[in-house]
Input
Amino acid sequence: MKEETKNILKGVTLGILLTLSGTVLAAWTEPTAPPPGANVEAPINVSNNSQAKGGNLTLNTNNIKEYGLIVQYGKLLISNTAPPQPNNPNELYVKGETGSDKFCNTLGTKCFTVDQLCAKAPGSWNLCP
Output
């Protein structure tokens, strides 16, 4: 190949690369605000700040861990309002209806089903004899 032809091919190749690079750079649009303003939502992270999520949160979907949610410190509140006043002494507070197949002591040695519950008086429950 002649030197002149090589130089022409180099020039054409360089021109194509510069054109493609310019096209890619022209397509870039700088964000209008720092995250998450007008962009994607902020991710749930490991900070100590309280965080809110508008949509559902699904945990342990790969079933690798035994427990899907562990609250190591503090109490767990499942409610759409603030916890009861004064401070609720229970580790778990659920406002509204809840259910379970069995209710057990902390060791799991004494369990009973809902069918074993009897109404003792309004607002209280007793195990059926």
The radius of gyration is 31 Å. The mean pLDDT is 75. The chain is about 20% helix and 15% strand.
